[in-house]
Write a structure and sequence with these properties.
This protein has one domain: Aldolase class I (TIM Barrel), CATH 3.20.20.70. Helix 2 packs parallel to helix 3 and helix 8 packs antiparallel against helix 9. The protein has 13 helices and 11 strands. The longest helix has 16 residues. By secondary structure, it is α/β, with parallel strands linked by helices.
Length: 314
């Protein structure tokens, strides 16, 4: 209906619940933001509106979303409404919140390589936290996905990510480190050089053909393999997906460099905010692997359509 009849349906929503974070990853600056957050009741009311509009999946991120004391109430409301909920996490707080996470569609855990590499990027002990979180989730039957940002420090270490994913019966989604720090304007010190990044993508394509648990579709990898000179990809933002900032502003996506039109839930409500989003015909900055998969499927790429799980927003 969205593709052929122009109906706007927020099937998948990427919601940054907070800018607060208990890590200081080298390629991210979100923890520097001094952002308001929607209250518990505002979040729950918005979820009810989303469900009436057809939302199937909400991916909660941050910052570190498990730092919100009300995360259990938010996930419980998703379950009551029949919305699939996923959480992006660095894993540190998973032991404290594990009972709140039992109904997740997916627990998306950041993993950038073996302990020396991962800890150098995200902080000492962070790799051990990933392992603890993955074991706890696996023991409780919570589906796991690993999220890997390919940077200058880990381009030769992606085999570790795939091996660990296989050990936990999980898969792994890969995407490039951005030119600037996430949610900041300073140059990203871990931005990979194009040649090494493209070699990494070629390795992932070969591994996927051999049956490795690569979550990206072949079509998605072929697009990312042209990074940083990405082709224009048709954009389904504002049609079947959107992003929500901690203070409740609704945007097409979380890319800070483009599509800056945004509308506040507090001012207009989610329904009007989503419907006010501009329609972008295409974008040559689609580096977020999960959104790229949805955009390619919306463009009726056969491989992406076969591969897509609605709302697999990372």
């Amino acid at each position: 209906m969205a593709k052929f009849f122009g109906r706007r349906m927020p099937l998948a929503v990427s919601w940054l619940l907070t800018a607060r974070c208990n890590a200081r990853c080298a390629y991210c600056a979100i923890w520097r933001l001094d952002s308001e957050e929607l209250t518990t009741q505002e979040v729950l009311k918005t979820l009810r509106t989303m469900r009436r509009m057809g939302t199937l999946r909400v991916n909660f991120g941050g910052g570190e979303p498990l730092m919100r004391d009300d995360i259990g109430a938010i996930l419980a409301e998703c379950r009551r409404l029949g919305i699939g909920a996923a959480v992006n996490t660095n894993g540190i707080l998973v032991p404290d919140r594990i009972e709140d996470l039992k109904t997740l569609t997916a627990l998306n855990i950041s993993l950038d390589g073996p302990a020396p590499v991962h800890d150098a990027i995200r902080g000492k002990g962070s790799h051990a936290a990933v392992l603890r979180a993955a074991r706890l989730a696996s023991d409780r039957g919570i589906p796991i996905r690993f999220l890997c940002t390919i940077s200058s420090r880990n381009s030769g270490e992606l085999g570790h990510v795939l091996e660990l994913a296989g050990n936990f019966n999980a898969d792994a989604l890969f995407q490039p480190a951005t030119a600037t720090r996430l949610y900041g304007e300073a140059e990203n010190p871990l931005r990979p050089d194009p040649e090494s990044f493209r070699k990494s993508v070629a390795m992932l394509l070969a591994a996927k053909r051999a049956g490795a648990p690569v979550a990206n579709s072949r079509a998605g990898l072929l697009v990312l393999g042209r990074w940083p000179d990405l082709p224009v990809v048709p954009c389904a933002g504002g049609r079947v997906f959107c992003a929500v900032e901690p203070a409740g502003y609704v945007k097409i996506c979380n890319d800070m460099r483009c599509h800056q039109a945004r509308y506040g839930i507090r001012e207009t409500g989610f329904r009007r905010a989503f419907r006010n989003l501009p329609r972008i015909p295409g974008c040559a900055r689609c580096e977020c692997a999960a959104l790229l998969e949805i955009n390619l499927a919306f463009a009726l790429n056969p491989d992406a359509v076969r591969h897509l799980r609605i709302g697999t927003l990372a």
